[in-house]
Amino acid sequence: MPHFRKDCSTKEKKARRTLGNRLDNVISIRISDQEKRNLERLIKRSSKSVSEVMREALELWSYKQRALFSE
Hints:
There is one protein chain. The chain is mainly α and about 70 residues long. The protein has helices spanning about 10-20, 35-45, 50-70.
């Protein structure tokens, strides 16, 4: 099964590590074939990695949840 990983340059990887922002936690999810195709399209259009897209999705969902429960 192919991975969606976008290759980062060595410089980008080192910058991420030196910022104290080490990303050591891994979350695994199961998605349908259609969801996978949609995610692949997003990745191509945005030039972002799957991880970046999923982090943004989590951030947006969290923001919406906070707004919903603070009303």
